[in-house]
Specification:
The protein has a 9-stranded mixed sheet. It has a domain of about 60 residues: Single Sheet (N-terminal domain of TfIIb), CATH 2.20.25. It is α+β, with helices and mostly antiparallel strands. Helix 1 packs across helix 3. It binds a DNA duplex through strand 6.
DNA sequence: CGAGTTTGACCCGCGC
DNA sequence: GCGCGGGTCAAACTCG
């Protein structure tokens, strides 16, 4: 969406909500900004480099709860792509209630919001590098990737989570294939790849240098398979929900009683998910429903 | 023994 | 051209 005509984004932003610009980690694309909701402790990432196909999906989210959306729209987008904000709002909308709930239940809320982040990197995909062959001299680029061939960045999305553990359970199995020190950050960045040989999804996990309690997880690509999932139950991690939102497969993960992954527990996400999964309020759950119910089937 | 992790080396793009 | 930083590879290692 274009600028909100006649409205001073900044003023509305500050007066209409408690959202505040939370900065932009050095390690993240310049097109990404972070906002922090002082009331619910929600951290959101906004990436302006949204592409049409994703905007379509995001518009869908926008339908969920425009009331909740508004605070996000306000002040966020003096530029374009407000649909991104809508997505954030929708995502948070589905989270808002739980976020608040978790706040009251657990003291410190820890809700993260994800925004589809597509080919970011300052909006210039061409700047992407694709090493691919990487590694040792043995030439033989493992894959048939010609030298010099540019890397094609897969759709990415990221979210921030307040968590003690870095690698949060999201229903998929990952293999760590690298770790690098991040400039201007005492925390290393870890690189994970989906263990499914046919799946090219990657994931980067790092801690925010500004707030060590925040874990920034970035997914790249789409799973071409179902998650390993969990037998049954009613819990679904937010990471899983978000990850699933942008994958062709249904990503709903269940944690049988007593089998909630340690990572989820320690990341304080359990209270949130429990609320969502047990109460299933129409308005707050719809965001998650979006993960598993085709748009055309959902009630409006 | 297989799967996953660690870690140093290497490749590549970008900025200066 | 060079250095830097991000991303990846793959051998060695660890763990169950």
């Amino acid at each position: 969406m274009e600028d909100k005509e006649g409205v001073d984004p900044a003023s509305e932003f500050t007066s209409d909500s408690s959202w505040a610009l939370a900065g932009r980690p050095d390690s993240v694309s310049d097109s990404v900004n972070y906002f922090f909701d002082k009331e619910s402790n929600i951290l959101s990432e906004f990436d302006w480099n949204l592409q049409p196909d994703h905007a379509e999906q995001i518009d869908r989210f926008d339908e969920l709860d425009r009331a909740d959306t508004r605070p996000y729209l306000a002040g966020s987008f003096s530029g374009s792509h407000s649909c991104v904000a809508a997505a954030a709002a929708a995502a948070c909308g589905s989270v808002s209630g739980s976020g608040t709930a978790s706040s009251s239940a657990g003291g410190s809320a820890d809700v993260s919001t994800l925004i589809p982040s597509v080919s970011s990197s300052s909006g210039d995909d061409s700047s992407e590098k694709y090493t691919g062959s990487g590694g040792k001299p043995p030439q033989i680029p493992s894959k048939a990737r010609k030298k010099g061939q540019k890397r094609i960045r897969q759709p990415r999305f990221a979210f921030m989570t307040k968590s003690e553990v870095e690698h949060l359970e999201d229903g998929y199995r990952w293999r760590k294939y690298g770790q690098k020190a991040v400039k201007n950050s005492p925390f290393p960045r870890s690189y994970y790849r989906c263990t499914n040989s046919k799946c090219t999804v990657k994931k980067r996990v790092e801690r925010s240098s500004e707030d060590p309690t925040i874990v920034i997880t970035t997914y790249e690509g789409q799973h071409c398979h179902h998650s390993v999932g969990f037998p049954r139950g009613g819990l679904i991690s937010r990471e899983a929900a978000f990850a699933g939102r942008f994958t062709p497969s249904v990503s709903q993960f269940y944690y049988p009683h007593g089998e909630i992954p340690e990572s989820i527990i320690r990341s304080q996400q359990v209270p949130i998910e429990i609320v969502e999964s047990r109460t299933l309020p129409q308005t707050t759950n719809e965001g998650l429903l979006g993960d598993i119910v085709p748009p055309g089937i959902r009630n409006r």
